[in-house]
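The records we work with from here on pair a chain with its fold. These numbers are not coordinates but entries in a learned vocabulary of local backbone shapes. To see the layout at work, look at the sequence and tokens printed below.
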Amino acid sequence: MRTGRGVPPGGPVDFVARTIAEQLGKELGQNVIIDNKAGANGAIGASDVMRSPPDGQTLWLTSVGAAAINTSLYEKLAYNMQRDFVPVALVVNNVELFVVNPANPAKDAAEFVANSKKRKDPVAMASTGIGSIPHLAIEQLGDASGAQLLHVPYKGAAPAITDLMGAQVEGFFGDIPGLIGYVRSGKLKAIGVASTKRHPALPDVKTLAEQGIPNVDTNNWYALFAPAKTPPATVQALSEAVRRALVNPAVKARLLDTGADPAPSTPAELAALLKRDTDKWAKLIHDKKIKAE
């Protein structure tokens, strides 16, 4: 079986794919090959998988952006999630972590917001690009708190993090797996989690809701989809194999240690999540008039 992906090798999605691949192969009784298909914000990977035979041999591992955000962000897409794919299983949840430079005086997000309101100029907040989950988290934070924020889009997390450590920008929302190493080493300071509950890898970091900032709830989840017309029995068998792989103690421990939260689901549960997030992000993108460049 080949698992197609929509991002280049070496990133968080690639790590998750390679972490589960061996165990998933054992559960399925066949090899799982990771085939990176980067480009066009996930569209190249999506197009490749949707044209594959619906036999359960080719799957698309992707993040919430390509699955639930692109449809509102782009006027034209080469794929349609409802027409071209069937949900297989949620793989991991990746909530956004709010981080600042260690020299920032704010001890938490509430103080960061309060400090922003005392300034004449807005606080520069980095993101990984227009319409990305970090960007949408910034928009949610501004709406929920009244903070004075300036969105500064970057082409990916690496340059955004570099400029945050260099104090060129003052805050950043990012996936916990991509930030936890910086936090543990003291290079960045975590001041909030954009989720309804604290993260097991960072139990001392309060959620934004706990700090009096509601409705900042982001989840850059990763999930598996199969081409449309894949037989329901095949989809179900794949979903159950993914679940068994994710509850394997070694796989689960490795994912949790990096900040990824294993979250196996049924196909129906993933379908419901996809609809909820598609609707949620569509409203925010429409209200803020966000368009991809």
In short: The longest strand covers residues 85-93. Residues 267-287 form the longest helix (21 residues).
